[in-house]
Amino acid sequence: MKKASVIGIGRLGLCFSLTLERAGYDVLGADVNQKYVDQINSKQFKTTEPNVEEYLQQSKNFNATTDLKKAVDFSNVLFVVVATPSLANGRYDHSQVDSLIETLISFGKTEEKKHFVICCTTMPGYSDTAHKKLAEYNYIVSYNPEFIAQGSILQDQLNPDMVLIGEGNKKAGDILEEIYRDMTVNDSFVCRMTRTEAEITKISLNCFLTTKIAFANMIGDIAIASRCRPQKILDAIGSDSRIGLKYLGYGFGYGGPCFPRDNRALAIYAEDKNIKALISLASDKSNKEHLRFQVEDFCKKTKSDIISFDTVTYKPNTTILEESQQLEYAVRIAKKGFTVVIKESKEVIKSIKDKFGNLFIYEEREFDETEK
């Protein structure tokens, strides 16, 4: 069997491992959390991400370990899916990848050529720096991020619109393209380029979506202020094939763990190159202005003192509150004196309570089968 190692088997890394395994690969995942690894190996892990538990139960050639050396020795292709959170200055924190690289260096030069494939979001240029550190130890570094959405990760991995490969060399690109041909079920468009080109592509694609969302909400706000129907206007605009209807709906602004930070990171990287990313900066500002308009419009029009939210996560059917426009909307309304009821899962309620205490009334709900 073909083999692959996945270093970092959190939500995304676990899904990637299971998708590879179902494609016929023998996969070894590495993680630092022994309890989590034990849950994976005993197939007792629980998650709200659709189909993950089912895939894990059905897997026959996926195992997990806390032994990094074992994962390195297991395969010549190492997919790196560790976290790169944002720093206070808006740049990505590469410390987990850096730490991994230092550990690999401590293992010494490998006998066989190995492919170190960075799948997490990085600042453009980082993968080239990583390659310079690892090259003499017989590693080829490539950059290969995924474009997925929380709540549909497995489906997105099986049916990507595009596979992005920032290849370390042609052979590395060939290996990665073959893996994705094995793993995906659709005839996805494969884009091969340099590492830095791929890093710019990754955050630029998300920034285009933030721009589209911000534009749609701006037009929607104008429509509401004009006593018109936002979606009627947006549907007409989106019917033009040059524009399209995806991400052209009126609603809450963009949030979550990817869009806001990628938008800021592109502007920061552009500044490094003496370019002002005015569109990205404007999207960020427009996103905040839209929330202000929503709150003011609500306060002017509502006739009820009690407001209920079925969800306040950044998107329905997830547990993620990071930069949630829905939650910030609820917070602002509550602080204006409205009684706000939040109906959420036990896990989400705990997170909100830890930060906001008794600002809200909480009602626990369970995810139904259509949400899992």
Q: Enumerate the spans where pLDDT stays under 50 for 5 or more consecutive residues.
A: none
CATH-assigned fold name of the largest domain = Rossmann fold
Strands ordered across the widest β-sheet: 3-2-1-4-5-6
Number of distinct beta strands: 11
Helix content: 40-55%
Q: What share of the residues does DSSP label as strand, in percent?
A: 5-15%
Count of discrete domains: 3
Main sheet attributes: strand count, strand direction, barrel closure: 6 strands, parallel
Helices, by number, come to 14
Q: How far apart are the first and last residues' alpha carbons, in Å?
A: 31 Å
Gross morphology is: globular
What structural category arises from helix and sheet content?
alpha/beta
Q: Secondary-structure element order, as H and E? A: EHEHHEHEHEHEHEHEHHHHEHEHE
- Based on CA atoms alone, the radius of gyration comes out at 22 Å
* CATH class value of the largest domain: Alpha Beta
Mean pLDDT: 96
Q: Mind explaining what this structure looks like?
A:
By secondary structure, the chain is of the alpha/beta class. It has 3 domains: 3-193, Rossmann fold, CATH 3.40.50.720; 195-301, N-(1-d-carboxylethyl)-l-norvaline Dehydrogenase, domain 2 (Orthogonal Bundle); 302-372. The protein is built from 14 helices and 11 strands. It has helices at residues 11-22, 34-41, 52-58, 68-74, 95-107, 126-134, 153-158, 170-183, 195-225, 230-238, 259-272, 278-301, 325-335, 346-356, and strands spanning 3-7, 26-30, 62-65, 77-80, 114-118, 139-143, 162-166, 189-193, 306-309, 339-344, 361-364. A 6-stranded parallel beta sheet has the order 3-2-1-4-5-6, sandwiched between helices. Strands 9-10-11 form a 3-stranded parallel beta sheet. A two-stranded parallel ribbon has the order 7-8. Strand 4 (77-80), helix 5 (95-107) and strand 5 (114-118) form a beta-alpha-beta unit. Helix 9 (195-225) runs parallel beside helix 12 (278-301) and helix 11 (259-272) packs antiparallel against helix 12. It is globular. The two termini are 31 Å apart. The mean pLDDT is 96.
